[in-house]
Design goal:
By secondary structure, the protein is mainly α. The chain has 20 helices and 2 strands. Strands 1-2 form a two-stranded antiparallel sheet.
């Protein structure tokens, strides 16, 4: 798998692990944290979630412009790691994050750091394959890169859950996914019948019904939310490890600034001679960007509506083992790490027979696979009550769906991701004009930002329409995008040659 790959690939991937670790902590707990901390419903939390995830990627455009302008890619990457670490440190302070607006401001600090870091490191990795000796290994290289950066992400949700639940336990309680919303309702005087609340309160308090339910509600929310704050601090450690790795290994990575100095005059001539080709390349890139908008709009529901579905409709038990609503977030990076070698082997075998699909064809197939995930969700949701009908009250265990539904959906979505995300990065690095590498990688992330900016629509549908309609919308969007991508494949293949 590592044969004939350039030196520096694994170093770059290991340096990216800290960013992925923090990202998957956010993916696992951000929505539930916002709902619990600030008494938000899913739609309100979804708006903040969308703003944050949109900002993460749209600010990559800013980071790309800064790096392209200064030619200081490595310095920009280091600055990004430091800014992200600062943001996570602020988010870990319970007394500081007192309103949703302060929380959003802190999230935007993290997003800005990510913008400085993410696209530029991807651009540097792409530079490794500009050497003709490695150019044929570009797709495989980005798949390896994508696999390694997700190693830390495998355990990030588990660590976040462990930190949160450990702190809750230290306060004399146990974890309950549905209790925070019920605590807010009790404090707001919206409970007419407190029997169910008393049962849950007793179950998290060693079987004893609290004498003062209002005091208990405040105490449980304080423990639950403080545990969330401390969970964010785990990302700081991972970020600092990534910083150390990058500083130690940065000499192994290419320096785009030096490369541009050598090729400045050639590039100016080539730009004039090949203006039409450059135009076609940029058009091709933006066509792909338009398609992946809809993939990320659907895929990143895993941290929003799919997490809400885990809390509201999924049986959080597997045999005798108790599950947390956030645990499903570990499936995605786990599958990325362990399935990437399989996918690479399949493509390698097909390549030897001259039958390997082109990168645009793989992206089109990935969109179809993503659609299948939401077909599964649609079928599994038939007969379930609408969210408005349950009014936030927990469903009986007999009514909930098996956790294997979400396990299978996350697995299918991850397979789709393997066909789209690492190969999309490879496509961008191959097709982008040399003088626009950082900017085009930023535009790829900008397309992701547009998809993320619409994430809240999923939460709106989840709360206001039937689950079947909600999941069907995502399935249709992915199927239509697949058709559009298939229609452009031949053109994209010509441009990429």
């Amino acid at each position: 798998m590592f044969k004939n790959q350039p030196k520096g690939l694994i170093s770059a991937a290991l340096a990216n692990m800290g960013e992925r670790f923090g990202f998957y902590i956010m993916m696992a707990i951000l929505t539930l944290f916002l709902m619990s901390k600030f008494n938000l419903d899913g739609e309100e939390a979804g708006v903040l979630y969308s703003i944050f995830y949109c900002s993460i990627y749209i600010l990559a455009l800013v980071g790309g412009l800064i790096a392209d302008k200064t030619k200081n890619y490595k310095g920009t990457i280091i600055a990004g790691l430091l800014v992200m670490s600062t943001g996570y440190a602020l988010l870990a302070i319970p007394s500081l994050i007192t309103t949703k607006y302060i929380a959003l401001g802190t999230l935007l600090i993290i997003a800005f750091g990510n913008g400085l870091f993410k696209g530029n490191l991807q651009a540097v990795v792409g530079q490794l394959y500009d050497d003709p000796k490695y150019s044929s290994r570009r797709d495989a290289g980005f798949q390896i890169f994508y696999m390694f950066i997700n190693i830390g992400a495998c355990i990030a949700p588990m660590i976040a859950i462990w930190v949160r639940n450990t702190f809750v336990k230290m306060q004399g309680f146990t974890y309950s996914a549905n209790l925070p919303a019920m605590c807010h309702k009790l404090i707001d005087g919206k409970f007419e019948d407190t029997i169910k609340f008393q049962e849950l309160a007793a179950s998290v308090s060693n079987g004893e019904v609290p004498t003062d339910l209002t005091a208990f509600a405040h105490q449980y929310l304080e423990a639950f939310n403080t545990g969330f704050h401390y969970a964010f601090s785990a990302a700081i450690v991972a970020m600092l490890i990534s910083l150390l790795i990058f500083i130690i290994c940065k000499k192994r990575l290419p320096n785009p600034a030096k490369k541009e100095v050598v090729k400045t005059e050639i590039s100016k001539t080539e730009i004039k001679q090949n203006a039409q080709e450059i135009k076609q390349r940029i058009l091709a890139l933006f066509a792909v960007f338009g398609i992946v908008i809809f993939f990320w709009f659907s895929f990143h529901q895993n941290g929003l509506t799919l997490t809400m579905f885990a809390k509201d409709y999924t049986l959080l038990k597997l045999g005798s083992m108790e599950l947390s609503a956030e645990i499903f977030q570990s499936i995605n990076p786990f599958v990325v790490v362990f399935l990437t070698p399989v996918v690479m082997w399949i493509f390698s075998s097909m390549a030897k027979k001259g039958k390997e699909p082109s990168t645009p064809m793989k992206i089109a197939i990935g969109m179809g696979i993503a659609a299948l995930a939401y077909v599964v969700m649609t079928v599994a949701s038939i007969g379930l009550p609408n969210f408005s009908e349950i009014s936030g009250a927990p469903l009986n265990e007999a009514t909930r769906v098996t956790p294997w539904v979400l396990f299978s959906v996350y697995f299918i979505l991850t397979v789709a991701e393997l066909f789209i995300s690492p190969l999309g990065l490879a496509f961008v690095s191959k097709v982008a004009p040399a003088h626009l590498q950082g900017l085009m990688q930023g535009c790829w992330l900008g397309a992701t930002a547009v998809g993320n900016g619409a994430l809240f629509l999923g939460a709106t549908m989840y709360q206001s329409t039937s689950l079947v309609v909600t999941w069907s919308v995502f399935a249709i969007v992915c199927f239509v995008s697949m058709g559009a991508m298939f229609g452009m494949v031949k053109w994209l293949e010509r441009v990429a040659k």
